[in-house]
Amino acid sequence: MSQTKALKVRATLFCILVGIVLAMVAVVTDHWAVLSPEVKHHNATCEAAHFGLWRICTKRIVMTDSTDKTCGPITLPGEKNCSYFRHFSPGKTSEIFEVTTQKEYSISAAAIAVFSLGFIIMGTTCALLSFRKKRDYLLRPASMFYAFAGLCIFVSVEVTRQSVKRMIDSEHTVWIEYYYSWSFACACSAFVLLFLCGLALLLLSLPRMPQNPWESCMDAEPEH
Questions:
Q1: How far is Cα 43 from Cα 12, in angstroms, rounded to an integer?
Q2: Rounded to 5 degrees, what angle do the CA atoms 69, 72, 182 make?
Q3: H/E/C letters for each residue in 137-180?
Q4: How many Å apart are CA 204 and CA 108, to the nearest integer?
Q5: What is each CA distance from 28 to 23, 31, 107, in whole angstroms?
Q6: Coiled-coil regions in this chain (predicted)?
Q7: What are residue 33's phi and psi, to 5 degrees?
Q8: 34, 83, 176, 204 — which has fewest CB within 10 A?
């Protein structure tokens, strides 16, 4: 591998590393979406919620602004209560999650996120072996694993988005407004970096194609 191509590969891997960090942050945190009910009375106590792939947290907030009809923002002080979803941990769980969304959504989103982390681990293993053993061809499976990880994160994001939409549209919920929070932004950024940089790494790791009619693939620089 030429020095110029090696520099491009390292820059691409650095962007992939940033994507891996963002993916890990998104998976382990619980600020994917924030849900807010309607506030009908001044100085009323309302209960806003934020959740991720593994648990949901509610916060009781006293609203003092009579012009604001929604509960929040979630950063206001209040009594906070967090619980993990029942399908991962038996025992007490949030009634809000059980009533307002189907378990299939969260199970799917969390399972796909776990697959994404598995692809990341396999891709990182191949990338480390390619540098340690001087085997550049291992960058190709690594790039594919990273691209697959990005796709899995995208699917997890879409499943979560559909889950939130179903909760807002349901007549059995108190939620009237929502917005996606910083964990959701981390997941979207991780998808872009892992998928695009994975494809870029694949193109960089391919052998040089013939540039003239009289050249053949055998004329490309040998791989180690």
A1: 53
A2: 130
A3: HHHHHHHHHHHHHHHHHHHHHHHHHHHHHHHHHCCCCCEEEEEE
A4: 33
A5: 9, 10, 15
A6: none
A7: -145, 150
A8: 176
- Please state, as a whole number, how many other Cβ atoms lie within 10 Å of the Cβ of residue 202: 18
Query: Residue 4 contacts by C-beta under 8 Å, 6 or more apart in sequence?
Result: none
Token pair 């942050």 in the structure block, residue: 25
**Tens of pLDDT along the chain (224 residues)?**
678 888 898 999 999 999 999 999 999 998 888 888 766 665 667 777 788 888 878 787 776 665 666 676 666 666 777 777 665 444 444 455 544 455 567 778 888 999 999 999 999 999 999 887 678 888 999 999 999 999 999 999 999 888 888 877 766 666 677 888 899 999 999 999 999 999 999 998 887 665 665 555 555 555 55
Q: Enumerate domains of the chain plus CATH numbers.
A: 15-85+99-205 (1.20.140.150)
